[in-house]
């Protein structure tokens, strides 16, 4: 990349105005755009050498890996764009992971002044980006940001969008490559997909693809879709059917931001790159596994949305099931996207279905924090759960008989996500004799915050006796990398630009997961209301009783207890 300019000339940084009119003969919309006159200067890195974790370490591959692309963000004026997407794109630009041939077109229903739109996005980057603000980086990115007003359910608006993307593509030399990001409420998914599908059909009918230089292959189209992906099996299946009519499966990227977290990505490396774990990673040695996603805040202003979802739909069917599959899957044949996702699907298919309503109620607990019914947008007689605990089994050769305990809740004592793998107790001889009891070995994978993994082992206390105490060897990513690891959206956006779908969910994963959750939701319909629990507690007493029936208890997150730091 060549050197970036230190300023944008206001006289040349003008936005292309787009007008849509109707052809009198055909009635079809016609699009007229003024010339884009922004002076584009390529970007080079002239930073002072501050160290920070980047996604690609091979410098020769950094910019070259990412292909040219025009990225459209539907719902560009929303919270997700300002808090997550633009900060992630800024961080990618700061690391030189975006090519010079790159442009962003925000799309929304509201009219927006371009300079104000850019200023609003800049405010979000300043507040939420992982890396430090750099005027040169933002100027490089800002001159590639544009805005298009339009409806989500009108063909004429999408005809204007198509023409605008063709124009921007020619100006920025994006070779017809398009990435669409659906950062909208789920109610807008279907009309957006349908209109994009009609654009593709029109292109194919006229024997052309997106605007491309002569002699080059047709550019690719890719679509990133946010959760929630459906509200039950039927709606998820219908959405998948619609996507299948408009896109190929390898063009669809169903995003689950948990899969972009470094600790989650490291689960497979920890399991399959270390010989010490694989021989004891099975039902012969492991006693049980716990997966916890705790949130300190309540629903806040999301009460209206939460009334349509609840804890089970909001967290378990996507994030927590994905964590569970990575912990339990077999080694893939290769590290390609479909090889990994094939193994994850096999785990979901092996999950034990609850044969009756009684089985569901015996193995699940739902709770609601006190005061939830007084939240904005919440019905005064709401039965929606803000807490859920599950006991599940994976009925395959490796895991048969090992219980998996999942719990998620809001208004809990702290924000944390962690996986706890607990091995069986040692025999009751030697160090287990006497009044004390040696604790079982335990591996803790902390997904957030303070990403790390810790292994609990037993050691002798110095002195003349044989007293045994547990210690933890802990590896913290931020400390070992001399900085915070990349944010999830950085990795996921970059992977989508590269066409790597490894960290995204596949159609069959989604539908198998919903088939399991549907059986629980159906049993809850005429079940007793959720158990009440105090805000700031660890949930209802019934959840403690659920795990206590197996002579277990929930792991309480602690950060500083008998830690021996291991630096990598």
Q: Mind explaining what this structure looks like?
A:
There is one protein chain. The chain has 16 helices and 18 strands. Helix 2 crosses helix 14 and helix 10 packs across helix 15. Strands 17-10-11-12-9-13-14-15-16-18 form a ten-stranded mixed sheet, with helices on both faces. The chain has a six-stranded parallel sheet with strand order 5-4-3-6-7-8, with helices on both faces. It is 33% helix and 19% strand. It is α/β, with parallel strands linked by helices and 568 residues long.
Number of strands: 18
Quote the distance from N terminus to C terminus. Answer: 32 Å
Helix-residue proportion:
25-40%
Strand order of the largest sheet: 17-10-11-12-9-13-14-15-16-18
Poorly predicted runs: 1-35, 37-41, 43-64, 560-568
Structural category: alpha/beta
Instruction: Please tell me the overall pLDDT.
Output: 84
* Helical stretch tally: 16
Strand content: 15-25%
Task: State the shape.
Answer: globular
The radius of gyration computed from the alpha-carbon positions, rounded to a whole number of angstroms, is 26 Å
Q: What does the main sheet amount to?
A: 10 strands, mixed
Summary keywords:
alpha/beta; single chain; 568 residues; disordered N terminus; 33% helix; 6-stranded parallel beta sheet
């Amino acid at each position: 990349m060549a050197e970036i300019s230190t300023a944008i000339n206001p006289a040349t940084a003008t936005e292309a105005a787009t007008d849509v009119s109707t052809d009198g003969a055909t009635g079809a919309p016609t699009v007229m755009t003024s010339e884009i006159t922004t002076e584009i200067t390529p970007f080079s890195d002239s930073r002072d050498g501050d160290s920070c974790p980047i996604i690609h370490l091979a410098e020769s591959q950094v910019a070259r890996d990412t292909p040219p692309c025009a990225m459209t963000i539907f719902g560009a004026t929303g919270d997700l764009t300002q808090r997550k997407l633009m900060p992630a794109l800024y961080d990618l630009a700061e690391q030189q992971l975006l090519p010079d041939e790159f442009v962003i077109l925000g799309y929304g229903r509201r009219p927006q002044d371009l300079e104000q739109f850019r200023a609003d996005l800049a405010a979000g980057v300043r507040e939420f980006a992982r890396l430090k603000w750099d005027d040169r980086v933002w100027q490089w990115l800002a001159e590639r940001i544009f805005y298009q007003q339009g409806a989500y359910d009108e063909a004429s608006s999408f005809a204007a969008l198509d023409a605008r993307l063709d124009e921007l593509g020619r100006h920025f030399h994006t070779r017809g490559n398009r990435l669409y990001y659906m950062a909208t409420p789920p109610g807008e998914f279907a009309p957006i997909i349908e209109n994009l599908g009609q654009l593709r059909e029109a292109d194919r009918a006229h024997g052309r693809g997106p605007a491309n230089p002569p002699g080059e292959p047709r550019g690719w189209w890719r679509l990133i879709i946010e959760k929630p992906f459906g509200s039950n099996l039927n709606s998820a299946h219908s959405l998948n059917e619609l996507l299948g009519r408009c896109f190929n499966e390898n063009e669809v990227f169903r995003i689950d931001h948990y899969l972009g977290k470094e600790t989650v990505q490291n689960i497979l490396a920890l399991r399959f790159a270390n010989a010490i774990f694989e021989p004891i990673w099975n039902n012969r040695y492991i006693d049980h596994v716990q997966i916890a996603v705790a949130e300190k805040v309540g629903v806040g202003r999301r009460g209206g949305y939460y009334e349509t979802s609840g804890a089970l739909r909001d967290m378990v069917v996507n994030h927590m099931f994905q964590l569970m599959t990575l912990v339990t899957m077999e080694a893939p044949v290769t590290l390609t996207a479909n090889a990994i996702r094939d193994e994850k699907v096999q785990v979901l298919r092996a999950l034990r279905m609850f044969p009756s309503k009684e089985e569901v109620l015996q193995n699940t607990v739902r709770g609601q924090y006190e005061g939830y019914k007084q939240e904005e947008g919440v019905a005064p007689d709401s039965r929606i759960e803000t807490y859920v605990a599950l006991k599940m089994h994976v009925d395959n050769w490796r895991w048969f008989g090992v219980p998996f305990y999942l719990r998620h809740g809001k208004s809990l004592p702290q924000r944390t996500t962690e996986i706890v793998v607990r091995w069986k107790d040692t025999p009751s001889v030697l160090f287990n004799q006497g009044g004390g009891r040696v604790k079982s070995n335990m591996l803790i994978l902390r997904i957030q915050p303070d990403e790390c993994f810790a292994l609990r082992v037993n050691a002798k206390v110095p002195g003349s006796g044989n007293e045994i105490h547990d210690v933890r060897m802990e590896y913290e990513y931020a400390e070992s990398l001399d900085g915070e690891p990349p944010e999830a959206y950085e990795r996921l956006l970059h992977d989508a630009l590269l066409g790597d779908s490894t960290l995204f969910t596949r159609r069959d994963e989604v539908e198998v997961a919903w088939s399991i959750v549907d059986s629980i939701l159906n049993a809850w319909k005429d079940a007793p209301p959720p158990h009440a629990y105090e805000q700031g507690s660890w949930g209802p007493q019934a959840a403690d009783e659920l795990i206590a029936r197996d002579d277990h208890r929930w792991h309480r997150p602690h950060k500083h207890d008998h830690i021996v730091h291991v630096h990598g």
